[in-house]
Amino acid sequence: MKKILLFSLIAVSFIQAKELNPQMRGFMNDLNIEAKKENPNIQGFDYARGELIFTTKKIGKKDNIISCVTCHTNDLSKNGLNERTNKVIEPLSPSANPKRFTDVKEVKKWLRRNFRDVYNREGTALEQGDVITYIINKK
Amino acid sequence: MKKVILASLLIAGSLVADSYFGSSGKRGVAPVTDEFYKKECASCHFAYQPGLLPSKSWEKMMGNLSNHFGTDASLDPVDNKTILNYLVENSAEKSTQYKRSKKINESVPRNETPIAITETKYFIKKHREIPLRLIEQKEVASLANCIACHTTADTGSYSERAIKIPNYGKWEDD
């Protein structure tokens, strides 16, 4: 009985972790509307495109090779590391770190900063939606 | 009874300390007290105490967060102002009762505005004998990583006794 209860609790928390809160769902919806304005042919956000954004290596501001993986690693359930400051970065995956992707202001801030650091520009609505889709669903 | 003795000892001790260091003399720098500052700034790096730079430095730095030592650390304007206010209100020249703040402030010339603590003359003087290999090793990464060697840096204390350099040990100045 205890095992069943534990299993149900884990299952519930797993589902909840992947479910965005209303504030974040609103943000994803706004991004979707914006992306369709930019290109009426798009069919929603895409995990594979998000993965490409997350893993593509670029030349950063300091002529260094950089991608999202540089600091966040490829295992989003584990801690990352800011290599410049040696500061630990908590896991990006909401299933490992439930605080992630709950606060729209925070999400917008980091998307702006990190796109500029890796791509030297801000992400389009489509790119932002794609990369969030990748991060929150990656196993 | 034991408690009374302990309390008396503590009071007596602090009186002695006061007369020894002078009424205005405090060691180190004032610790960080602002939770919002900690949240916003210390998510990427050590929470440098505001008393480690004069206000003109904080103003210059916070005016260019989109290129913050090569990284985009931009904040929305309201949050930027909130943090700048905290930094300026507790900056080095306003915390001269703390020894390190006083010395850092005195080492910054009138016509210079360093934006890095590591660029102040006091800081440079205090760190010039440290071999590069100890700074560049992966446990430390850079001189900006205070807590890597100053084990009590988060409390505002940079006392020599609390220095422990990874793969080296205690640092004896003389």
Report on this model:
The complex is a heterodimer of chains A (139) and B (174). By secondary structure, chain A is mainly alpha-helical. Helices cover 55% and strands 7% of the residues of chain A. The longest helix of chain A is centred in the first third of the chain and has 17 residues, at 2-18. Chain B has 174 residues and is an all-alpha fold. Helices cover 40% and strands 0% of the residues of chain B. Chain B has helices at residues 2-21, 35-41, 55-62, 77-89, 99-107, 121-127, 132-136. The relative contact order of chain B is 0.13. Classes of the chains: A mainly alpha (139), B mainly alpha (174). Chain A binds chain B through residues 61-62, 82-87, 105, 109, 112-114, 116-117, and chain B through 42-46, 66-67, 69-76, 138-142, 144-145, 148.
Keywords:
heterodimer, A: 139 residues, mainly alpha, 7% strand, B: 174 residues, 7 helices
Q: How big is the Rg of chain B?
A: 18 Å
What is the residue-mean pLDDT of chain B, rounded to a whole number?
Answer: 90
Please give the largest β-sheet of chain A: 2 strands, antiparallel
Alpha carbon gap, first and last residue of chain B: 44 Å
Q: Roughly what fraction of the amino acids of chain A lie in strands?
A: 5-15%
Helix content of chain A: 55-70%
Q: Which SSEs are present, and which pair or pack?
A:
The complex is a heterodimer of chains A (139) and B (174).
Chain A: H1 2-18, H2 22-38, H3 47-55, E1 58-59, E2 65-66, H4 68-72, E3 80-82, E4 87-89, H5 104-119, H6 125-137
Antiparallel strand pairs in A: 1-2, 3-4
Helix pairs in contact in A: 2-6, 3-6
Chain B: H1 2-21, H2 35-41, H3 55-62, H4 77-89, H5 99-107, H6 121-127, H7 132-136
